[in-house]
Amino acid sequence: SSNKYGSSSWELIVTVDHQYEEEQKEFILRVSGDLHIGGVMLKLVEQINLSRDWSDYALWWEQKKCWLLKTHWTLDKCGVQADAKLLFTTQHKMLRLCLPNMKTVRLRVSFSSVVFKAVSDICKTLNIRRPEELSLLKQSEDTLKKKKKKDKNNKEPVIEDILNLHNSPVISGSPASPGLYSKTMTPIYDPVNGTPVSSTITWFSDSPLTAPNCSILAFSHPNCSPETLAEMYQPRTLADKAKLNAGWLDSSRSLMEQSVQEDDQLLLRFKYYTFFDLNPKYDAVRINQLYEQARWAILLEEIDCTEEEMLIFAALQYRLSKLSLSSEAQDFANECEVDEVEAALSNLEVTLEGGKMDNSLEDITDIPKLADNLRLFRPKKLTLKAFKQYWFVFKDTSVSYFKNKEAGHGEPIEKLNLKGCEVVPDVNVAGRKFGIKLLIPVADGMNEAYLRCDNENQYACWMAACVLAAKGKTMADSSYQPEVHKILSFLKMKNRTTSPQAVSDPESTDMKPERFVSPRYAKKFKSKQLAARILEAHQNVAQMPLVEAKLRFIQAWQSLPEFGLTYYIVRFKGSKKDDLLGVSYNRLIRIDAATGDPITTWRFSSMKQWNVNWEIRQVAIEFDQNVSIAFTCLSADCKVVHEYIGGYIFLSTRSKDQNETLDEDLFHKLTGGQE
């Protein structure tokens, strides 16, 4: 009876997504524009007339790709008219996540919260602290092609390897979820007397993570076969590497808005390479997943390393594979004694510039300096690589060199200011080569200088000074000594002390060494030869406990020149050709696409503002000293690159004294691309 409603009423068609019944049902509701969304849902449920819990259901507007979650808004205010197609569906749906350790878990995730919030809930379920460092990645078609030639519809077959966590209490605010996280924060030891707490497993009591599930996440598992490895996607060029990073989801929109469907597969990965406050007491899962992400990056050559480094990574993996086969590693309580953890922590400054540094404490009068004879090579066109000795002095953030020590009081031949430069190690311990390659920014690009040191200690002191100076810090900074220590411990692992025949390991006969190196290195050696080289490197880590071996692996990964660089193909404003943009945790690098050489570096610390011109999809950034750049992104949406930059700025605002609550609004403000 239309007269009852007056002429202002109209018909609205709503499809109901019954989760368990195949048929979708259409309902026609008689509504008027001043009816609010809550009223529409009430009318609908009355009309469906089924008694069930509808609390997780909400209205999804198909054409506009948006949720109607503000239940007090009227249809008029939302702009919903008779032509709108609405779907009444659950907000939480099953999602398959491939974790950094390549295992897949299935769990219920909010498809209506923004991704930032959804990831935070996922990490709670998986017991990973600091969820802001992770995000969800859609695998690009190219990387899938190699893996799935056989499978036409690219839905991966549901294999038995999937860990089902579908009873997981990920629904925010449901009574089951708050307890889990606070319990997770119970240390594995009694804080008073340092003995292991026996009931470690009980801290997962109200989480789907029962003991076996937890160990799938917290322990590393045997390496896959070389054949499996060969079938996986390996980026060959920087452009290939750029493809890996195209699919990051937009953290400020929901899964549903980004066309993710129920039971789709996404990758959960560490996205930002600043790992804040890694603590073995709480972070068994986080450290293991980080180790796994590093390990796969090296095996699939997503990051380059030298042969010497590859052997260290292989030796650490071999050590871990032996530990995980032995029974005690599977026993949570013995997993690490307290003193070992403390030692590993003091040993490893793994937090990598997490929070803001307090530089106010630097004593300006007492900035140490280094002075020594080093060899230098400055490449000019068509010269051979000839190193010549000079007297070098390192003070503040610059290096000067003189003909000899006596001339050191006069004017230097040249003074190199290292602020903002790129520092690349050029080391081969076996060949006694300890080189530092410096790329120093000048008006039209980068100037190269190569320094050569005589031994490990000299190299560690000078290298650490260069690394700090590049960030604008002097040797008076508190991070100088730990940096020297870190470089030395990495060199020590590279040092091969024993003669090959002295190394024997009864268990190594069936080592299958190819599992521990990338396919390219596996092809270089005969299997026996490779096993011998790995065992030789293993000497240095043979006694290392489980957690420390993982932390060392992560730290060695952090020492690689390419660590933490994410590549995008871009076109700079005014340029005729495409370049690569490397986004790192503290800087942006413009890279020549043809040669892979850095052209210019810009530090985040000198960034004043950044935003996106959405009409032409161009990212514009202003730096100090009136430097400004603009580029469009060709290998991904510009929002992806923009969010990466804003995300790093956001992470640099974290401090130790904050508890783990995050300023989510600040994140969206810094990554949103609005003026």
TrEMBL record:
Keywords annotated in UniProt: Cell adhesion, Cell junction, Cell projection
Gene Ontology, cellular component aspect: cell projection; focal adhesion
CDD domains, sorted: FERM_B-lobe, FERM_C_fermitin, FERM_F0_KIND1, FERM_F1_KIND1, PH_fermitin
Keyword match Methyltransferase: no
SUPFAM superfamilies: PH domain-like, Second domain of FERM
Recorded GO MF terms: integrin binding
A Pfam family the protein falls into: FERM_M
Family, as annotated: Belongs to the kindlin family.
Name assigned to this protein: Fermitin family member 1
Organism of this sequence: Chelydra serpentina (Snapping turtle)
